[in-house]
Amino acid sequence: MADHPVDEKLPAPKMATTGLQHVAAMYAGVVAPPLIVGAAVGLTPAELTFLTGACLFTAGLATFLQTVGVWKIGARLPFVNGVTFAGVAPMTAIVASTDDKKDALPVIFGAVIVAGLLGFLAAPFFSKAVRFFPPVVTGTVITLIGVSLLPVAFGWAQGASPDADDYGSAVNLGLAAVTLLLVLLLRRFTRGFVKQIAVLLGLVAGTLIAVPFGVTDFSPVAEADLVGFPTPFHFGAPQFQLAAILSLCVVMVVSMTESTADMLALGEIVERPADERTIAAGLRADTLGSAIAPLFNGFMCSAFAQNIGLVAMTRIRSRFVVATGGGFLVLMGLCPVAASLIAVVPRPVLGGAGVVLFGSVAASGIQTLAKAGLEKDNNVLIVAVALAVGVVPISAPEFYHAFPETARIVLDSGISTGCVVAVALNLVFNHLGRGGREAADVTHPMETGEDLTSPGKAPAAP
């Protein structure tokens, strides 16, 4: 019996290029948190480079755990793991509340270790929630993942920093548009392997096109060291403070919720549905990777949703391709020069490719919703309200500004809030009380159901 495409081992050249494509897609997401937190701490450029390399190194280790797996650890799906952005706000808050900034990173690392270990113990119980994720819920969440990521691509398309003079300039937007066009042309007019690495080729071509415009910066390559190792506890031994631990435990719950949704999404895309056992194993990989990361000066790890779009678009479902990408991440952590090569890709070029990647995730969610029984008005309402709540952080970023910071960690994650709302509404409409009534009796969610409650009357004709 042939191996499932998820377990397929491709030829080495194909494995390397497609693995590198995954790294290119997620690189900006991995390096952004350490750059933001490191800047808040006041690290020197050399220390920032060290912290960024450490996060790349630990992301590679976590990706190995997730894709290759050991014992009951690892979903063994093509999942890339990296630093979760959900932890940025609470980590910067920890930095702000720490009198001696030299203690900030040790306090963060101590909190991440505790949150990771507690999450590891809770993984098998958390995974039981999979029964509450039918297609109407998973389709909604997958769509939200894509929609929530699109603003990231649009931000990249405008430039590296909102404070830069050229942010949103015609040159930056033009480079993003050209990269997007190149990826689309490669997908349309090429075949086979070239078609599958269209995103990587688009990134390379976009970077070369950007050179005459002065947007491509090669200084990271010139300044990077050839060899480096994330020395354990480089910034000091971990410190354990209750407030910091509680804050990052909340982040861990948010991260586990998003990872569960991501695993369900990827399971649908690769046609190996994620069951309770798979989700438990995947959450163990996330949480153990998070607990180990501070040893090498890394932050909390989580599954990267943007790479789901790459799997959906290329249809390369091998977990060993992503494991190869994890190998590149480890290499970048050990060889700063290698890491700097990816850093050369201008942010607008990444933005152009990101539109395709993240849009593909949303399209996959719509495909799942097509199988969710939307002829039933109950399901239409579930999708409508969950999507509306999920896009609040995107459409109205300050909507929850009056809420406590701890609550905002959850509320500002549209994926998490939309997921919770979808699960809750599915329980109310399709499981509790008369929720199991066939909604097909009502042709539209806005129509009245008066005729249905009157004895002897047939449903109104559509």
Give a brief outline of the structure.
The chain is an all-alpha fold. Helix content is 65%, strand content 1%.
Q: Can you tell me about this structure?
A:
This protein is mainly α and 462 residues long. It contains 20 helices and 2 strands. The chain has helices at 12-41, 45-67, 88-97, 104-126, 135-158, 170-189, 192-196, 198-210, 219-223, 242-269, 276-292, 306-314, 319-334, 336-343, 347-369, 377-390, 392-395, 405-411, 414-430, 450-453; strands at residues 81-83, 301-303. A two-stranded antiparallel ribbon has the order 1-2. The longest helix is centred in the first third of the chain and has 30 residues, at 12-41. The N and C termini lie far apart (49 Å).
Summarize the helices and strands and which ones pair or pack.
Layout: H1 12-41, H2 45-67, E1 81-83, H3 88-97, H4 104-126, H5 135-158, H6 170-189, H7 192-196, H8 198-210, H9 219-223, H10 242-269, H11 276-292, E2 301-303, H12 306-314, H13 319-334, H14 336-343, H15 347-369, H16 377-390, H17 392-395, H18 405-411, H19 414-430, H20 450-453
Antiparallel strand pairs: 1-2
Helix pairs in contact: 1-2, 1-3, 1-13, 2-11, 2-13, 3-4, 4-10, 4-11, 5-10, 5-15, 5-16, 5-19, 6-8, 6-15, 10-11, 12-15, 13-14, 16-19
